[in-house]
Amino acid sequence: MQLCYLAPTLMQSMTGHGRATDSSGVVTIELRTVNHRHLDIKLNVAMFSAALEEVVTRELRRQLHRGALTLNLSVASTATSNDASGLDTDRAVAVFQELVTLARTLGTEPPTLAMVVANPLVWRARAAPVDAAKLEGAVSEALAQALAALVAMRQTEGAALRADVAGRLQQLRQEAAAINLLAADVPAMLRQRLLDRLNKISDVAVPVDPSRLAQEVVFHVDRADISEEVARLQSHFEQVETALHADEPVGRRLDFLVQEIGRELSTIGAKSASAEISHHVVAAKTVLEKLREQVQNVE
Question: What is this structure's pTM?
Answer without folding.
Answer: 0.67
